[in-house]
Hints:
Elements: H1 3-13, H2 15-35, H3 43-70, H4 81-119, H5 122-127, H6 131-164, H7 170-177, H8 182-200, H9 209-244
Amino acid sequence: MSLFKDIFHRLRQGWRWVAAQYVLTMLLILLGLAWTRLPDKHVWQVALTLVIPILLAISMLELQAGTMRCFAVDDEKHVKLVWGAVTLIVWIAIAWAFWILLDWCDDQIPQWAGYLNSQSSSHARARIFTYDHIQRWLTIFEWILRWIVMPAKIIPYAAATSQLGWRIPLRRVLRILWNWRWWPAVVLASFLAVWLPAKSFTETPHGSVTAQVWCVGLKLASAYLLAVTSWVLLLAWEATLFERQQPPEASRSATVEILPPDETPNA
Length: 267
């Protein structure tokens, strides 16, 4: 079976979780927005403000772990869904730590651009290594680290632990990270889910108020569909590559059954 036939087979196999990604993700986002509007005048309202985020986080972890697992071939070694979802907390914490570090780097870009510009020669400083050029290059580099490198390295580990717990098949995961088919998929997903929607919102809305509302609504809807579709396809592609990294089964030694010679009748 080819890679593309395999990925579509996995999408059909896990169509319930795929549909849940579109429906439940939107529902969880709306519940999260509603949570921000909760008053805190009474005790029960304060309790809700504390309980709802926990329930939303648990639901999101279960949804993502279930989607990662639905694309995998059934295996007796799979851990329970709840334990697979718990392992995602560790990878989210790692991604969050890198995110904070990249935010700090983002704040330092103007200072670094000014320093690198001052260290260049007068000719290069005026034409090539200008302040604007260096700042743009550093911003692009930071964007690549945030939306391509970090997801590409964390997703295979997160998908593996959501299925197998902490019995991570390290060699299979490393083979995915060195597989040339994995990185273009992450690049394409990042551009469709992040760069393209952000580019569409840079334009200033114009026209009547109704036209602007419809324009913003369509942009939000398209951004949501692009993000969820890219995420689902990327997980299915990762599961396909992960399955292809299995070591070949040891060839079984053929056993030859020795039969007794046929008895011939005495002449």
